[in-house]
Amino acid sequence: GDGTWSAEFYLDIISPHETPIDIIKFNNLSSINPKFEVRLMWKKEGKKVGDSTFRYYVVANFDFMPEADNYPFDWQHIFVSYSITDQTRFGLIQPTPEALLDKEFHVNGWTLKDAISGVLRKKETNYKSAALEKSLSVREEARVGWTLARANSVTMLKIGIPLFFLLFLVYYTLFGSFK
């Protein structure tokens, strides 16, 4: 099934636009449990014209696909996916450099295993007009993701005790003498 995770984070944007948060689209915002709040914390003018830095405080719920196959050694990959609303008007968005990724945060019951950043490119086929003229376009979205692992000793006990009992039962029935 689908999963939802919540996050509170600061988003720093360097942009020539007056309100750059309006041209950014978060692609995996939760549709099941929608929440998206943004507040401008500060704006600093750069040395060059159009080189302003904006810091936003973002509170949002994001969707992810939980991997049930990983049970009982549970690890999940969560991510934030974002892109520019109109690349032809506003240009491209740079992904977060891996050296600047946040690798020191706390998630209750989970430990951080890995943090990655990059661009996901998807080919889209569009058919135009009544003649169904085919045109291809590439949609890009920047992603920041974290792999989290949960060490659950209770789960190991739930699995280990019945397995031990079954192994004992098999051993006893195979090698035990019946008188």
What does this structure look like?
The relative contact order is 0.17. This protein has helices spanning 87-90, 153-175; strands at 3-15, 24-26, 36-44, 52-64, 75-84, 111-128, 133-149. The chain has a four-stranded antiparallel β-sheet with strand order 2-5-7-6, with no helix packed on it. A three-stranded antiparallel β-sheet has the order 1-4-3, with no helix packed on it. With 179 residues, the chain is an alpha+beta fold. The protein contains two helices and seven strands.
Biggest sheet strand line-up: 2-5-7-6
* Uncertain residue ranges: none
Number of strands: 7
The run of helices and strands is EEEEEHEEH
Quote the average pLDDT: 86
Gyration radius over CA: 24 Å
Largest sheet: 4 strands, antiparallel
Distance between the termini: 52 Å
Offer a concise description of the structure.
Helix content is 15%, strand content 46%. It is of the alpha+beta class and 179 residues long.
Tag the structure with descriptive keywords.
alpha+beta; four-stranded antiparallel sheet; three-stranded antiparallel sheet; 179 residues
Write the layout of secondary structure elements.
Blueprint: E1 3-15, E2 24-26, E3 36-44, E4 52-64, E5 75-84, H1 87-90, E6 111-128, E7 133-149, H2 153-175
Antiparallel strand pairs: 1-4, 2-5, 3-4, 5-7, 6-7
